[in-house]
From TrEMBL:
PANTHER family: OXIDOREDUCTASE WITH IRON-SULFUR SUBUNIT, OXIDOREDUCTASE, IRON-SULPHUR BINDING SUBUNIT-RELATED-RELATED. Pfam families: Fer2, Fer2_2. InterPro entries: 2Fe-2S-bd, 2Fe-2S-bd_dom_sf, 2Fe-2S_ferredoxin-like_sf, 2Fe-2S_ferredoxin-type, 2Fe2S_fd_BS, Aldehyde_Oxdr_Iron-Sulfur, Beta-grasp_dom_sf. CDD domains: fer2. It comes from Streptomyces chiangmaiensis. It comes from the Bacteria. Keywords: Iron, Metal-binding, Oxidoreductase. Residues 19-95 form the 2Fe-2S ferredoxin-type domain. This is (2Fe-2S)-binding protein.
Amino acid sequence: MRDVASEQGIDDRPAVNERVVTLDVNGRSYTLRLDTRITLLDALRDRLGMVGTKKGCDQGACGACTVHLDGRRVLSCLTLAAQAEGREITTIEGLAGTDGPHPVQRAFIEHDGFQCGFCTPGQIMSAVALMSEGRAGSDDEIREFMSGNVCRCGAYPNIVAAIREAASGGGYDAHL
């Protein structure tokens, strides 16, 4: 058998910086061979096709890439995929339940908490987390704890109204 890769000087062995990583995303387990330097954001989008998590600034300044890691919000552009191994990852794709959209998703729709929609997944993931952290007691508190999520369209009043309604709606658990 002819080894064309060897003849052409191509090394098909795993790169020194690669390792096998198992990610538990939205209740499913995925085993991937990844460069140890790849971010969780890039693994989700480029390797798993979960494009709901957005790449905005890629520097941790806009919040568009917010996901939950073990129920806590993290910026996936600043988190290495290898750091998430063995932890529960929830993306916007995994937020809705069997009975339809999450209450925060419904409130965003009802209050038009988005315009272009680019930041919406990160906004919603942060909103769900701040509610489970007990930080939705007032509009000022909501604004403070959502300040890491930027909306270039300026839909902030609608976003705050949506979170306020979801947090005060009662009758459901805001946790994941």
